[in-house]
Amino acid sequence: MKKWLIVALSLLTGSCVTPDVTHYEHLEPKLALDSYFLGTTDAWGMFQKRSGEVVKRFHVEITGTLQDKKLVLDERFSYDDGTRQQRIWTLTQSADGLWHGTAGDVVGEAVGQVAGNALHWQYTLKVPVDDSTYDMQFDDWMYLIDERVMINRASMKKLGIEVGQVTLFFTKRGAL
Q1: Is 5 a member of any domain?
Q2: 11, 42, 127, 176: most buried by Cβ count inside 10 Å?
Q3: pTM for the whole thing?
């Protein structure tokens, strides 16, 4: 029994370790959210259960505009099961450099920090599953690969336990 307790504690403490976003501050190209997301960006993604099983795939078209010094992202999702969803983010950058975001299905405020080519973003999202909605905590990392391509990986947790991951690949339209 003691052996299993040690293994469980090791897994719990190991799952809490997250790199600091400033680790990426020297990497290029530098990510500027307000310029990367201006215009139209396409993304393709999937949701995987903690077991690794892919349970949902999707495409999202993102239209980014600047309105009163705020970056507004209109996301339109098309899922492989035929369902559609829209999320509109309003993002602002504070004097300390942090990004703050709100959306209709975000609980409270999302907060993120950019360093070098990376964004570390954390928030709670209301996620519909069958006939219920669950508040899921997202630990979201985005990495700019070049001026057109960005990769996103997010861990979803409920009550501190990982329930799955979301992976996305973004492509900026019109960038060369």
Answers
A1: no
A2: 127
A3: 0.87
